[in-house]
Amino acid sequence: MHDQLASLYPRHLSTLRERADKALALGGFDHLAIAAGMPSLKFLDDQHYPFAVNPHFKHWLPLSHAPGSWLVHTPGAKPKLVFLQPRDYWHVVPDAPGGYWVDAFDIAIVRTPQEALAQLPRGRCAMIGEPHPAVAGIEINNPPAVLDCLHYHRSYKTPYELELMREASRIGTRAHRAAEKAFRAGESELGIHQAYLAAAGQIDAQLPYASIVALNEHGAVLHYTDFTSRPPQPARSLLIDAGASASGYASDITRTYAAADAGEFQALIDSVDAAQRGFVAKVRAGQSYPELHVHAHHVLAGVLREHGIVRMSAESAVASGVTAAFFPHGLGHPIGLQVHDVAGFQQSERGGTIARPDGHPYLRMTRTLEATMVVTIEPGLYFIDMLLQELREQPFATGIDWTKVNHFRQFGGIRIEDDVVCTTEAPENLTRDAFAAA
Ligand code: GLY
Ligand code: MN
Ligand code: MN
């Protein structure tokens, strides 16, 4: 893996340099300076929130923990890393830079965040970062024209990035296997979460997002993160949505499992799984993502019918909002340096927004798929009391088998989520490939 990254990195860096040149030209700047960022203090406290590096910084370097450092790009010049290595015996001091990427940079080591500022270029400089008291002396301008261009092109992953995303999927699927085992062994949500972390070898703060580990009815809470420490009796189902990080790149994986005696729910999982594979197969260059999302509503309406949950046609189930009550989120989103990656709605490198289709307020991706984009495909079916209550009050409520719905409430819901690379031919399913190899 290391040798492969070493051989892919130079091309990645030259791609980023070309993109940065273009972004600077569009914004009318001569230099780009990217702050890694600094940890933020909690209110009235001496404790910091977990540090989250500026995604623009980790795009250039496999460094997720370099608070106070900066990256500087000037067209035609070797990129520069201003690396903060403080004199500090309270915290871990980052090691001096090493690895396959260091020769590509001029590196200046500094001891304080203020010393770093003296290393930054003067003049027309696009400064990308978050304002922080430690950098109060300089103007962080985050120029929209520069950001728009950088964000738009970030959707196209380099071969180096795809390799890191494969690694994030390998770590995530290994941990998902351990989580399933813990569920089958009767562990609590907290116990399953701990089994996941141990197998991933990552602590919560290193994960790309807060894991969702939901037993039984908890699966109906889309972002369930209140883990109970006692297993329910019986544990009927597990919905686990958890990812992993590799050099700052994310995986985002969801699986739903049924207990051995929950045959009817298992059959519903199998149908969502088959539907999900069908959507993944459509991840191809030229496919409109919002059209795929609307297609998913029609296919899931068919699943609801097939299982006797609704009696109406797929068309009327979609048109009346019935599918939206069972599948109330988007089909997926771009993923990369951030789990919900940037530019899902962006029209071009100059900005602009592609609107969501009417009636689909939670979709996070409206672009047409192109080769090297990576998106998640995550259909679901849930039994959410609040939405079911609203549905009951509608005139078409008679087209729903409420006894069936009531039966399924005890399982919470189903989501199946893979990370998929769009190509001009068959898609690459990072998640299923990693599960198969695990
Ligand atoms: N885990 C967040 C998501 O699936 O989008
Ligand atoms: Mn997702
Ligand atoms: Mn997810």
Give a structural overview.
It is a single chain. With 438 residues, the protein is α+β, with helices and mostly antiparallel strands. It has two domains: 2-154, Creatine Amidinohydrolase, Chain A, domain 1, CATH 3.40.350; 159-437, Alpha-Beta Complex (Creatine Amidinohydrolase), CATH 3.90.230. 36% of the residues lie in helices and 15% in strands. The chain contains 13 helices and 17 strands. The chain has helices spanning 2-27, 55-60, 113-118, 144-154, 159-184, 189-200, 263-281, 289-306, 314-319, 322-326, 385-392, 402-409, 430-437, and strands at 31-35, 70-73, 80-84, 106-110, 125-128, 212-215, 237-242, 245-246, 249-250, 253-258, 346-348, 351-353, 374-377, 380-382, 413-415, 418-421, 428-429. It has a five-stranded mixed sheet. It has a three-stranded antiparallel sheet with strand order 6-7-10. A hairpin with a 6-residue loop joins β2 (70-73) and β3 (80-84). α1 (2-27) packs across α5 (159-184). The relative contact order is 0.12. Glycine (GLY) is lined by residues 209, 241, 252, 333, 339, 378, 417.
Brief summary of the model shown:
By secondary structure, the protein is α+β, with helices and mostly antiparallel strands. It is built from 13 helices and 17 strands.
